[in-house]
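Good morning,

Attaching, inline, the backbone tokens for the sequence recovery test we're adding to the shared suite. The designed sequence is right after.
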């Protein structure tokens, strides 16, 4: 690894009204290294990278890039210095194509005028590293979250990048897609590009990073060579204490009572989906991006209507033509994109929590503020949402606490079945553990969960059964005693239905 320092932060401090986000940060990044930046939600990681890209100005300190010193960076200065960031919140124009998004705001070398064909050809060279099977002229709005992440990464690679900041880039990707991305990172590293890699998945740090910097509560705790540390040490640096288990133990067992049943459900790219969900059970849905897991959640929740097939709640056939019908039948959906689909970020925490139960706390279309306050306090406490004031906007919370607000919103309507689509995406290890504890508490209350997860360990450790989807069909079933990571991956890429490992789905 080269010792040539390309970016150095000296004495960086960022003070917001009432909050010290960063306090005297000193850290350097060298040419051609993969430097991981980790810490719990709220540790200061996002603020630090926004200072590097010019989105935020530091209150104090110096930013040194390629030998030049700045008291604050600008967006144009960041671009001139080859600093490019891929954020968790996508910066894409939904109506434009993949190719147009990749080269948005850029000029193709040797061309004065816009040429869509040339743009698509050049963009295809970058994007095909991630996805061979997607038409480069497809509008971004038609892509899954995972594919949109790939567009963001491709957009960064299309510029003359020298320092690439990647904020949770693997969160929406499957294991196979993560390996593809790692290949791209290694190639960039060999070309001398510096990668600042932010991730809550600590296993990835040991796969891809050379050094790791830990932040906690806005303070620089340590910077270590990855070869000289271990996962337990990093967790202790991050949370300030020992965390013995990543997954809590739950000794309860599902009952025989079926609370939700799908029979030959077809539509929304799905074909003949059948399963039974039992009270007190976590049914895990595995598969690659585009396999149909989120599409199944949409059918069950009434976001999209099936073309054929049957849905039964507690033995009663129901035409789930809208989310309202689903909620009336005590079904809730925690979507994969909490910021766009699960929350109204500009609204208060209080109003987000009460959003789904307004009818229950209203009379003659007037909301009872007393009942609302009681419900909000009950579920804020139950979900352990860390805030001193529920009148604050939801966007002020960390990712983990935002996810708890989504859960609180749905728990306020007392559902029997909760669909959790990527429940811990973009959440730090401490908050993940709290979400898992909440899931177990839901089971103790007699609820049933469907969990969609692209994290294999989470899928295996938290599920009672796993159904694997591929190309809109269930290709394999696994009971807990039969869970096998390699087999699950095989069924994830299998064509057609079948491969069942149990008789009663």
């Amino acid at each position: 690894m080269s010792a040539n320092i390309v970016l150095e932060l000296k004495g960086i401090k960022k003070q917001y009204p009432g909050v010290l986000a960063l306090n005297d940060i000193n850290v350097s990044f060298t040419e051609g290294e993969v430097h991981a930046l980790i810490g719990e939600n709220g540790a200061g990681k996002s603020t630090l990278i926004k200072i590097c890209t010019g989105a935020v100005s530091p209150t104090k300190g110096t930013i040194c890039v390629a030998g030049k010193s700045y008291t604050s960076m600008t967006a144009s200065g960041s671009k001139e210095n080859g600093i490019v960031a891929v954020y968790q919140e996508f910066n894409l124009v939904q109506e434009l194509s993949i190719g147009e998004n990749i080269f948005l705001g850029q000029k193709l070398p040797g061309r004065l005028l816009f040429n869509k064909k040339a743009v698509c050809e050049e963009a295809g060279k970058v994007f095909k590293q991630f996805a061979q099977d997607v038409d480069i002229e497809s509008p971004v709005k038609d892509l899954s979250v995972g594919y949109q992440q790939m567009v963001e990464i491709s957009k960064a690679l299309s510029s003359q990048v020298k320092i690439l900041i990647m904020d949770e880039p693997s969160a929406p990707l499957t294991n196979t897609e993560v390996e593809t991305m790692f290949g791209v990172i290694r190639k960039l590293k060999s070309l001398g590009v510096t990668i600042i890699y932010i991730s809550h998945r600590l296993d990835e740090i040991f796969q891809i990073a050379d050094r790791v910097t830990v932040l906690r509560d806005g303070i620089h705790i340590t910077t270590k060579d990855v070869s000289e540390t271990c996962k337990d040490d990093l967790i202790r640096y991050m949370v300030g204490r020992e965390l013995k288990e990543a997954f809590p133990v739950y000794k309860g067992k599902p009952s025989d009572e079926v609370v939700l049943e799908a029979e030959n459900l077809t539509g929304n790219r799905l074909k003949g989906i059948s399963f039974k969900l039992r009270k007190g059970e976590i049914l895990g849905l595995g598969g690659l991006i585009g396999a149909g897991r989120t599409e199944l959640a949409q059918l069950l929740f009434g976001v999209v209507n099936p073309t054929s097939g049957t849905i039964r709640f507690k033995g009663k056939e129901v035409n789930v033509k809208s989310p309202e019908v689903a909620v009336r039948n005590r079904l809730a959906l925690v979507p994969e994109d909490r910021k766009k689909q699960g929350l109204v970020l500009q609204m208060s925490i209080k109003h987000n929590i009460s959003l789904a139960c307004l009818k229950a706390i209203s009379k003659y279309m007037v909301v009872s503020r007393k009942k609302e306050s009681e419900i909000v306090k009950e579920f804020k406490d139950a979900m352990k949402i860390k805030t001193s004031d529920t009148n604050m906007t939801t966007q002020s919370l960390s990712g983990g606490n935002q996810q708890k607000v989504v859960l609180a919103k749905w728990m306020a309507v007392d559902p029997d079945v909760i669909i959790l689509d990527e429940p811990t995406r973009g959440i730090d290890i401490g908050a993940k553990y709290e979400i898992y504890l909440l899931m177990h508490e839901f089971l103790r209350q007699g609820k049933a969960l469907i969990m969609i997860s692209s994290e294999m360990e989470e899928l295996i450790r938290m599920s009672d059964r796993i159904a694997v989807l591929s190309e809109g069909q269930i290709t394999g079933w696994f009971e807990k005693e039969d869970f096998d990571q390699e087999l699950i991956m095989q069924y994830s890429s299998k064509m057609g239905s079948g491969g069942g490992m149990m008789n009663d789905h």
